[in-house]
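This section describes the prediction task in plain terms. A model, or a person checking by hand, is given the sequence of a single protein chain and must write out its three-dimensional structure as a string of tokens. No templates, partner chains or ligands are provided. The sample shown here is typical of the held-out split.
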Amino acid sequence: MKSWDYKMSTSMETQAGLHSIGGGAALQEHVAVGDWEIQPELNRLQHRHSALYRQLEPRLVQLLCYLAANAHRVLTRDELIHELWPHVVVNENSLTRAISELRKHLAIDASSGRVYVETRPKKGYRL
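The expected answer:
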């Protein structure tokens, strides 16, 4: 497993363990995001300090992996739609729902106050 501090990531770390999704790069190995470990091959999140895990839909794993691989920058809605659903017609509402679902899966409880996926108004999203 690779520990990922997305605020301190280097371009070399960003390139390691990536594979192409829709022409872009996304993680394909286990990576820590806060209290969670992304397990892309199992389509799940495993809590790093407990036995808690969350099974995710493949599209949510792809979204989270793409966000983690590009954690150093804000990703526009158009880029996310183009990279994650390149041959599918989706509207912005589909991405909004996917981000919302991902946030729910990442939250351990409502009172934690931890935000993993940041919305940058009029710009996009950032892990």
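For orientation: Confidence is low (pLDDT under 50) at residues 1-25.
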